[in-house]
Design goal:
Belongs to the cation transport ATPase (P-type) (TC 3.A.3) family. Type IIB subfamily. The protein is an alpha/beta fold. It contains 27 helices and 19 strands. Helix 19 runs antiparallel to helix 20, helix 21 runs antiparallel to helix 26 and helix 22 packs antiparallel against helix 23.
């Protein structure tokens, strides 16, 4: 199993696919703009349109020295390269990594250990969660609450009301056909402790307490000849035992499976009776009534053994027990939260269909509307028997799959992925490993999970609680949302810088933002901006949105609205400064360029606040809780002051007076009211580019 799952699929996450497309598109645009700027600058230079500060032509045919031409061309190429550097959002991988690393650390406190970093953001795109029942939706604290011997229910002290023969056979069937054990508690002669799976512990506890079973004595008196371990396909386990010369066969497993193997049954008095058709219907009704009360039904059967092979037919039914595994507190609320967030919850369990249905109703997975949906609940065998086309048609309507095998879970995951769903799967057993590996997000259980299951998973749920799965979903959406915030912020910077330099190059033959200044903007905006926006914590508002799935665009209409409005404002103001700055403020060319640079940087600082929320107008909400954000803003402003006032030679700037600083701050601060007004403008749900595609098709 480990060798099967250790092969890396190298499959990209939905976000990685989107980011690759985005960076590729932006890179192409940047290259195009850089090429056009270089072309325009070269044409202007060699046609004599470019003039120096004294008004003379920089290129004057043969009179111009070759060194001057080379230097001029190198400067033009440097300007073009700088545009490429600004255009490509190299801060994006850093922003993504910072967001994921920060979220990973915080998720540990919420009982989720992330093994694969990209799983954090993939969970934010999840459209379907396939969950186990036992231990995830339920407490995995099982207890026998109902027992039937023959067609009679025995509520209390079965050891005193049943015949000695039936009790002895039950002792054999429980003690010899189990993977658990019983031992006396330390410091007590009357109390016992039990080991094994929760189901085994529940049965052993009941047998010791109610049937007065002495497990050590039973094991001492009997010899095991042959064992058939529990099989998830057959849902049963069997043992062939020998006492002196007497050989007997004992089976234990899913009640309906064991009943089908029986032709007779023991009543409470120890009399063997034939199972007539009416009796079979009664037994089936007993199983269904127990299952309807969310009980797991386990039956015990016995037969005399003639050979060393386990007999599988014409057995005698000894009895049926019902095991209660209560739902976890808060699981219904967690399921409702996921459903409200537009995520489909599917329960996949090995229990029979009636128990599965009852638990699903109790947890809120099955709603009254599902009663009209005949495909809502089905068995794994039925799903397996469908053709691939039938499975694809029905899989989205399935809410509960009972009596399922690990292969059925894997089959469901593959079908859902084929339909474009982003699938999260919970699992704890070794056999769940292929499904956990195949899913977009594998969630293993920290308490009940096997090592193979954990190795196959992306995230380990430390408390085995479905409520923690809902929390992971919220964190995933937070990661995705933070990355979107940074992209909006980053693209605003890129669009504004590209347009300003391009327009200035075409009209004036020079770029107002120098290579050093643009690289400085890139450094503080990419690194510090990423850190500031990557550390926003999840809010309940994130669970009100629909899942983004696998195909939804990374840049939404809301983001386009926000970034284009801010970019348009910045471009307008900075172009006014570029062409009218000297006359408006009565300053030199170098001071004008410093004003442009300073205003541009401060606009990004103020816009960083706008980026905190894509849709909400109040961008200051919760600001006091995010000290890192406030700290980064302060550091950015201090560094900008140092850059302008003290690094004149390096940054190619001039010192500004208080009035000029005030103008820069006032222009930059206007982005707040603009952001507030723009967020009042409604945008269509259908993405802008989808209209273009539709027109092309038509």
């Amino acid at each position: 199993m480990m060798s099967h799952i250790s092969r890396d699929t190298n499959e990209q996450t939905p976000l990685q696919t989107r980011l690759d497309k985005l960076t590729s598109s932006i890179g192409k645009v940047g290259l195009l703009v850089a090429f056009l700027v270089l072309l325009v600058l070269l044409i202007r230079y060699f046609t004599g349109s470019t003039k120096d500060e004294s008004g003379k032509r920089e290129y004057n045919g043969k009179k111009t020295k070759s060194d001057e031409i080379v230097n001029a061309v190198v400067e033009m190429v440097a300007a073009a390269v700088t545009i490429i550097v600004v255009a490509i959002p190299e801060g994006l991988p850093l922003a993504v990594t910072l967001t994921l690393a920060y979220s990973m650390k915080r998720m540990m406190k919420d009982q989720a250990m992330v093994r694969k970093l990209s799983a954090c953001e993939t969970m934010g795109s999840a459209t379907t969660i396939c969950t186990d029942k036992t231990g995830t939706l339920t407490l995995n604290q099982m207890k026998v609450t109902d027992s039937w011997f023959g067609l009679e229910s025995v509520k209390a002290s079965p050891s005193s009301t049943l015949s000695r023969k039936v009790v002895e056979l039950f002792h054999q069937g429980v003690a010899m056909n189990t993977t658990g054990s019983v031992f006396k508690a330390k410091g007590s002669s009357s109390e016992y402790e039990f080991s094994g799976s929760p189901t085994e512990k529940a049965i052993l506890s009941w047998a010791v307490g109610e049937l007065k079973m002495d497990m050590e004595e039973v094991i001492r008196e009997h010899e095991v000849v042959h064992v058939e371990g529990f099989n998830s396909e057959k849902k049963r386990s069997g043992v062939l035992i020998k006492k002196r010369r007497e050989i007997t066969v004992h089976w234990k497993g899913a009640a309906e499976k064991i009943l089908a193997m029986c032709s007779t049954y023991y009543d409470g008095s120890g009399v063997v009776r034939e199972i007539q058709e009416d009796d079979k219907i009664q037994f089936e009704n007993i199983i269904q009534s127990m299952a309807a009360k969310s009980l797991r039904c386990i039956a015990f059967a016995y037969s005399d053994g003639e050979t060393k092979k386990l007999k599988e037919e014409k057995l005698s039914l000894l009895g049926i027990v019902g095991i209660k595994d209560p739902c976890r507190p808060g699981v219904k609320k967690a399921v409702e939260d996921c459903q409200f967030a537009g995520v489909n919850i599917k329960m996949i369990t090995g229990d029979n269909i009636f128990t599965a249905r009852a638990i699903a109703v109790e947890c809120g997975i099955l709603t009254p509307e599902d009663e009209t949906n005949e495909d809502a609940v089905l068995e794994g065998e039925a799903f397996r028997s469908y053709t691939q086309q039938q499975r694809l048609e029905k899989v989205e309507r399935i809410k509960v799959m009972a009596r399922s095998s690990p292969f059925d879970k894997l089959l469901m995951v593959k079908c859902l992925k084929e339909l474009g769903h982003v699938v999260a799967v919970t699992g704890d057993g070794t056999n769940d490993a292929p499904a956990l590996k195949e899913a977009d997000i594998g969630l293993s259980m920290g308490i009940q999970g096997t090592e193979v299951a954990k190795e196959s998973s992306d995230i380990v749920i430390l408390d085995d609680n479905f409520a923690s799965v809902a929390t992971v979903l919220k964190w995933g959406r937070c990661v995705y949302n933070n990355i979107q915030k940074f992209i909006q912020f980053q693209l605003t910077v890129n669009v504004a810088a590209l347009v300003i330099n391009f327009v200035a190059a075409v009209s004036a033959g020079e770029v107002p933002l120098t290579a050093v200044q643009l690289l400085w903007v890139n450094l503080i905006m990419d690194t510090l901006g990423a850190l500031a926006l990557a550390t926003e914590k999840p809010t309940n508002d994130l669970m009100k949105n629909k899942p983004v799935g696998r195909t939804a665009p990374l840049i939404t209409n809301v983001m386009w609205r926000n970034l284009l409005a801010q970019a348009f404002y910045q471009i307008s103001v900075l172009l006014v400064l570029q062409f009218r700055g000297r006359s408006i403020f009565g300053v030199t060319e170098r001071v004008k360029n410093t004003l442009i640079f300073n205003t541009f940087v401060l606009c990004q600082v103020f816009n960083e606040f706008n980026a905190r929320s894509l849709e909400k107008k109040n961008v200051f909400r919760g600001l006091h809780k995010n000290r890192l954000f406030v700290g980064i803003i302060v550091v950015t402003v201090v560094l900008q002051v140092v850059m302008v006032e003290f690094l004149k030679r390096f940054a190619d700037t001039e010192r500004l007076n208080w009035g000029q600083w005030g103008v820069c701050l006032a222009i930059a601060a206007a982005s707040w009211p603009i952001g507030w007004l723009v967020k009042s403008v409604p945008v269509p749900e259908k993405h802008f580019f989808s209209y273009l595609k539709w027109k092309k098709r038509s």
